[in-house]
Design goal:
With 100 residues, the protein is mostly helical. It has 3 helices and no strands.
Length: 100
């Protein structure tokens, strides 16, 4: 409260402080309870590894399975190179972004 403000006659200053402290304590307790519930339900601070270790581990190849087929190499690029514009071929032609 401001120093010059007059306290209301029906609510003494001590009672107001007690209500504010109770309000803050209840809200902090509610936040703590939410975190505790999340900690219990979520299994702790550290979650499961991503990706799961069972998926990340490779099993030994079985003798009965077929060997994996090799992926073929991509075909060579047979396209011709595009022609350069005239301003890029000859130095005496001004470039479009230059002002002479």
């Amino acid at each position: 409260m401001k120093p010059e403000a007059v306290a209301p006659s029906d609510a003494p200053e001590g009672d107001q402080r007690r209500r504010v402290r109770l309000f803050v304590a209840l809200h902090l307790g509610a936040v703590g309870a939410i975190y505790a519930l999340a900690l219990l339900v979520g299994g702790g601070y550290q979650g499961p590894p991503m990706p799961p270790l069972t998926v990340a581990r490779a099993s030994a190849p079985d003798a009965m399975t077929e060997p994996k087929q090799r992926v073929p190499a991509p075909p060579a690029n047979t396209m011709e190179a595009a022609q350069l514009p005239a301003w890029a071929q000859r130095v005496e032609i001004a470039r479009p972004w230059e002002s002479r």
